[in-house]
Amino acid sequence: MASQTSPGTPDDSGIEAPLALNLGAVQRYMQGRLPGFDTEITARKFQNGQSNPTYLLQTEAGAYVLRRKPPGVLLKSAHAVEREFRVQMALRDTGVPVAKMHHLCEDDTVIGSSFYVMEHVVGRNFSDPTLPGLPASDRAAVMDEMSRVLAALHDVDAATVGLADYGPAGNYFERQHGRWSKQYRASEVETIAEMDELIAALGAQMPADDAQRGLVHGDYRIDNMIYAADGTNCRAVLDWELSTIGHPYADLAGVIMQWQMPPGREGRGLAGVNRRDLGLPSDQEFIASYCQRRNLPGVENFGYYLSFSFFRMGAILQGVRKRGLDGNASNPEHAARLGAFVPDFARAGLAALSRKFD
């Protein structure tokens, strides 16, 4: 696979237009705060980053990445670049690889919204979990590294790294069910019967709080990771907008959820793929690898956590669709395509409730 840079492809095929970034304002503001901003800078917009528009900045001192909130009216608590900055700062000296944070600007008057500037991490970004072009041994190593980093994240002591207040106490899934139900209703443009049924079923089958609490990423997927250009070690985990103090099984289930999607550019999943021939782990093997690293006997009722992941992603995609309709999406056409998958995620969530992972 061709080498890429975080978190999309920095060439003409991976850049969207229009730029929608006031470069002059960025340059004036960053002068004296980071090297390279005392002369003209250029920017290109990454194709990824539907939620928070992300740009590759080129300066005489080198490259940086700028990530901002999108313009327009936003849902409450959404697009929290301030949280992204804080959590990555906190993780800089842990076993979780993150980009170096340089500067956070919370002054909306500079470019119209908060933004931060971080290190440009050079490496490979795999948007396709089948990992085309890699030998089977490298595929296995890449996925094993994905398991290792996830376990390392969930073993971080949030209080030790200054994140004890990063999320409220209580039943994480109950809290998240309420949050994303409200977000979904706020973005609803038509009745989707399957989503209504799934919301009700998840509420009725809510598991008791087992007191597991820790730092969770919230959108842990292979396309949110940068791997070494010439190796299989992870150099940075990206896109921390949904991170919080919560239940670690939410992240684990999110990985398995993504793999249930069809392969290809849109689904980016592994449904129907002969994983063994490709050197890729089965769902059960990945779960077992994660549990072994964390000294867990296994995960009871994993179908519920998987179902919840489908529900939350459906709610997220509904929000993307609504932003597209309102004219606030980074890429309106892509937002419409993603929004069309909401009923599919709802149906998959209902099916997952009865799936066994023994």
Automatic annotation (TrEMBL):
Ranges of residues in domain Aminoglycoside phosphotransferase: 43-266
Listed SUPFAM superfamilies: Protein kinase-like (PK-like)
Protein name (database record): Aminoglycoside phosphotransferase
Pfam families per record: APH
Superkingdom per UniProt: Bacteria
